[in-house]
Design a protein that fits this description.
By secondary structure, this protein is mainly beta. It is built from 6 helices and 39 strands. A hairpin with an 8-residue loop joins strand 8 and strand 9.
């Protein structure tokens, strides 16, 4: 992840936009790789086949009972071939490299639902549902790598030309889920609504004895507008108060995490009876057969309202959630013999408020205009970790742990502390650039949090010079090191929001939708490579190159070209990633029905649409709505050159027969 030769996007950002002559003293295998190398000597071909089918049958047994059978399945076969030729770093080191993958995944679901509906005399209605569902998921991925080629022209089709072929151990992830569910809805006088439900889920991901999770829920609602004392309020068309409680479950761990898995170990051999070397199979993971369902219990209180014949309507929700028995994958110390393991530990709290509004501003025969919007505030907090306090340097004794490393060039960049928001960015605090006047006999001068002046003599035992990045010696011991790291950002937003509008005149309509996030930080690792001059930097942005510190330009933003960039995270990499995105703009025209009926169509419309039309943000990266390690909760909010959201232009025709 830290290397510049790992992907074309990283190479395009890091490397100079020209090819170096082979006689250059700094010319080596790594900087032979340029964007032209990726264009000329890299092949990535994917053959993807997908098949989907579904069936939905309903049998009305009598006026009270109705049976519904829903079943469906998805089949996906994906074959991918990647070729790295001699112009690429990967190909140079392997005399050509070919990577093949054969992915086969499918899932089948069957739902059996029985509905019961009846009236309880003249004052109530009862609807009840009982069901059994079954889901089967299968995943098999076979990977092959080949190198040491003597003939390169066949590229991705030249497996038989490789001198060395390695068939990796297949990756298989199969699991099943069985659910029994029941729900009852009772409506009394069409004013008082009561709902109760219960479901039991059994997952094969867990060991026997822990496979089943039980999840009840209940809700109450009062339709106040139906009361006699409210019916004379002409401008009030709806007013409903509701409250609910429920428990949900999470089983998001890899299948077989509760078992000890075996795999080949190329570093370990033993001899058979004839003395021939045999590859050994060893345990590859630390099993935990005590894993069980992660559970989230939530309370919700809400208000639904409609005013002026529902020309203005909306909802207000206040909620509180607590998740217990968190399923966490934690890195283990080297003495454990395994890299990581899953276990249930800790609790998380979420409190929030959500508001949505809908307004029909114009509602005429030909002209219509509607606007809707929503906003949500959520506060997350680690309630409990179940660990003993440990030393976090300047932060002191805390209950918590570090996140996973985000790459060789950065190390750990997150910290999880009890009583704080999850996934806080953790690293060195900086104060611009060291200027000549900052260097005194006492050390490098900096400003402490309380506004007083402090001094430090070394950074990781090395004396700083003018033009280096200036750091804060948080613990005041004179040496800036890992113990001086502090919280430097928060990937959790203050609030999220969105709004949309639709305006129409006769058969022509124009709609637009927007989505926004406020108060969210991103750890933009690209700043290390393109905005931090130094001895290890490659291609720089024009602003960084032209304004870096020199003897004649005492910049307080960009260090000098002699600054030694080390492998750590600092606050210079953290940016505000608040944004407002126009997600969609669509222009639609409904063709006159009189025209369509003559050619056998009920309805027809033509439309033009722009997806991701524009974005308003101060974020310097390509896309503020990015999470490079999206499947790892211990590394949230990181941008490592991830592919941005594309802009799409769509033209279409909708026909109804």
């Amino acid at each position: 992840m830290g290397g510049a030769t790992g992907a074309i996007s990283r190479t395009a950002l890091d490397y100079a936009p020209f090819e170096m002559p082979e006689g250059d003293p700094s010319f080596n295998n790594e900087n032979k790789t340029t964007v032209f190398s990726w264009l000329n000597d890299y092949v990535d071909v994917t053959d993807d086949k997908t098949f989907k089918a579904s069936l939905d049958l309903t049998w009305k047994i009598n006026k009270f009972f109705r049976y519904n059978l829903r079943t469906g399945g998805n089949l996906n076969i994906n074959e991918r071939k990647r070729w790295y030729g001699l112009q690429l770093y990967q190909g140079m080191n392997n005399q050509g490299l070919l990577a093949l993958s054969d992915l086969n995944k499918n899932n089948v679901s069957v739902e059996n639902i029985l509905n019961y509906s009846t009236k309880l005399k003249s004052f109530a209605t009862l609807d009840a549902t009982a069901g059994v569902t079954y889901e089967d998921y299968n995943f098999l991925n076979k990977n092959t790598t080949a190198n040491q080629f003597t003939f390169f022209e066949m590229r991705e089709n030249g497996l038989h030309m490789a001198g060395n072929v390695n068939n990796a151990q297949p990756i298989q992830k199969d699991y099943q889920l069985v659910s029994y569910l029941g729900r009852a809805n009772l409506s009394i006088l069409d004013k008082y609504l009561i709902t109760a439900s219960f479901r039991a889920d059994g997952s094969s991901k867990f060991a026997k004895g822990n496979r089943w999770g039980y999840f009840p829920s209940a809700s109450l609602a009062w339709r106040m507008e139906q009361e006699e004392f409210m019916k004379n309020i002409s401008w009030l068309s709806q007013l409903k108060i509701r409250v609910s409680y429920g428990v949900t479950g999470n089983q998001s761990i890899d299948p077989y995490s509760t078992f000890s898995m075996y795999g080949s170990n190329s570093n370990l051999y033993y001899a058979d009876g004839s003395g021939n070397a045999q590859t050994a199979f060893t345990v590859t993971n630390l099993s935990n057969n005590s894993l069980k369902w992660e559970k989230t219990a939530s309370w919700n209180a809400g208000l639904d309202f409609g005013l002026f014949n529902s020309r203005l309507s909306g909802t207000l929700d206040v909620y509180q959630k607590k998740t217990t028995d968190l399923l966490i994958s934690r890195t283990l110390p080297g003495s454990a013999g395994f890299a990581s393991t899953y276990y249930n530990q800790g609790a998380m709290k979420n409190n929030g408020v959500e508001l949505s509004l809908n307004a029909q501003i114009i509602d005429k025969k030909d002209w219509k205009w509607s606007v809707s919007g929503n906003i949500g505030f959520n506060k997350s907090e680690i309630a409990e970790l179940g660990l003993l306090p440990s030393d976090f340097g300047f932060l002191g004794e805390k209950v918590g742990y570090y996140g996973n490393s985000i790459g060789d060039h950065f190390g750990v960049g997150h910290v999880f502390l009890e009583g704080e928001a999850p996934g806080l960015f953790f690293g060195y605090v900086t104060q611009g650039i060291v200027q000549p006047e900052d260097i005194t006999e006492q050390g490098v001068k900096y400003t402490k949090k309380d506004g007083t002046i402090g001094y430090y003599q070394t950074f990781n035992k090395v004396a700083p010079v003018a033009g280096d990045i200036k750091f804060v010696d948080s613990d005041g011991d004179g040496d800036v090191n890992v113990n001086d790291r502090d919280v430097i950002g928060d990937p959790n937003p203050d609030f999220t929001y969105g709004f949309s509008t639709n305006i129409s005149w006769k058969n022509l309509s124009l709609s637009a939708s927007f989505a926004g996030v406020q108060g969210k930080d991103i750890l933009n690792t690209n700043n290390r490579y393109v905005n931090t001059p130094g001895t290890r930097s490659n291609n720089l942005t024009r602003k960084a190159y032209q304004n870096m510190w020199t003897e004649s330009n005492h910049s307080n933003l960009y260090p000098s070209s002699t600054f030694v960039i080390q492998n750590y995270v600092m606050d210079r990499y953290v940016e505000d990633a608040s944004y407002l995105r126009c997600a969609d703009i669509t222009l639609n025209y409904i063709l006159p029905k009189t025209w369509m009926s003559k050619i056998g169509f009920q309805n027809a419309s033509v439309y033009a649409s722009v997806k991701n039309a524009f974005i308003i943000t101060n974020y310097s990266g390509y896309d503020p709505d990015v999470n490079f390690f999206g499947f790892d909760g211990l590394r949230p909010g990181v941008d490592m050159g991830a592919y941005p959201t594309p802009r799409s232009f769509i033209f279409g025709l909708n026909l109804t027969f």
